[in-house]
């Protein structure tokens, strides 16, 4: 299933998406294109993007979100919450791009608050958050900040046999720009790179390989990712 997003959000806009996969069912949800987050005026509310996913016992769900591109002066609060039951499994990917460098654009000031919460049988098993505010360019330039990175991505597999995919995950997200870890039945892959296109290529390859290994699906992403 493809999701038609707005194509561009600005101050006061709010997008809420609910995905439900029944027990034993399978579902793949992707976006038609990258989402653009435009400048928010000081008097306007922050942009809010909320994704809620519920997967029943034995169900399999893919959330394949394409990039969120942050324009200078935007303020974004994004949250993904997933509730898994029994052996329900989730493969989810999201990416942030700090300005379109190919267009000479930068995300130098603004706000991005990006949070993930995954629960299994009502128990919180993974919580993660990124918060950048104010002079983002200065923070991003620090070696102990983003080290000059302009794009970041997170890919998560939460489901049966997660630990068995850790070696593959580390091959798919190699240093120095990537890494992978496993905890409590969840494999997490991360990337942080200066080149958004190079990051996209690594994310696409890794997501395709992991969906094939974990779900037995074709090792490729929906055609909308390459249109």
Short note summarizing the structure:
The protein has 227 residues and is mainly beta.
The largest β sheet comes out as: 9 strands, mixed
Number of strands: 14
Shape: globular
Low-confidence parts: none
Which descriptors would you attach to this protein?
single chain; 227 residues; mainly beta; 15% helix
Describe this structure in words.
The chain is mainly beta. The protein has 3 helices and 14 strands. The chain has helices at residues 136-141, 166-172, 196-215, and strands at 2-3, 14-21, 26-31, 35-37, 47-55, 60-64, 68-70, 75-84, 89-97, 109-120, 123-135, 151-158, 178-183, 186-193. The chain is globular, with a radius of gyration of 17 Å. The model has no long low-confidence stretch (mean pLDDT 94).
Give the SSE map:
Blueprint (H helix, E strand, L loop, with lengths): L1 E2 L10 E8 L4 E6 L3 E3 L9 E9 L4 E5 L3 E3 L4 E10 L4 E9 L11 E12 L2 E13 H6 L9 E8 L7 H7 L5 E6 L2 E8 L2 H20 L12
Parallel strand pairs: 1-3, 2-5, 3-6, 4-7, 5-8, 6-9, 7-9, 8-10
Antiparallel strand pairs: 9-12, 10-11, 12-14, 13-14
């Amino acid at each position: 299933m493809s999701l038609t997003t707005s194509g561009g959000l600005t101050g006061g806009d709010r997008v809420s998406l609910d995905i439900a996969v029944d027990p034993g069912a399978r579902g793949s949800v992707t976006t038609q294109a990258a989402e653009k987050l435009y400048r928010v005026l000081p008097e306007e509310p922050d942009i809010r993007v909320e994704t809620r996913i519920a997967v029943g016992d034995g169900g399999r769900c893919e959330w394949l979100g394409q990039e969120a591109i942050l324009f200078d002066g935007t303020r974004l609060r994004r949250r993904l919450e997933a509730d898994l039951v029994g052996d329900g499994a989730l493969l989810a990917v999201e990416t942030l791009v700090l300005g379109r460098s190919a267009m000479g654009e930068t995300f130098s000031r603004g706000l991005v608050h990006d949070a993930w919460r995954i629960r299994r049988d009502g128990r919180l098993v993974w919580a993660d958050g990124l918060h950048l505010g104010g002079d983002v360019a200065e923070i991003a330039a620090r070696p102990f900040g983003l080290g000059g990175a302009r794009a970041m991505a997170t890919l998560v597999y939460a489901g049966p046999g997660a630990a068995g995919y850790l070696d593959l995950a580390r091959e798919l997200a190699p240093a120095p720009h990537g890494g992978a870890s496993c905890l409590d039945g969840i494999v997490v892959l991360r990337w942080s790179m200066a080149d958004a296109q190079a990051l996209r290529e690594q994310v696409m390859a890794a997501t395709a390989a992991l969906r094939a290994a974990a779900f037995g699906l074709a090792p490729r992403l929906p055609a909308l990712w390459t249109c």
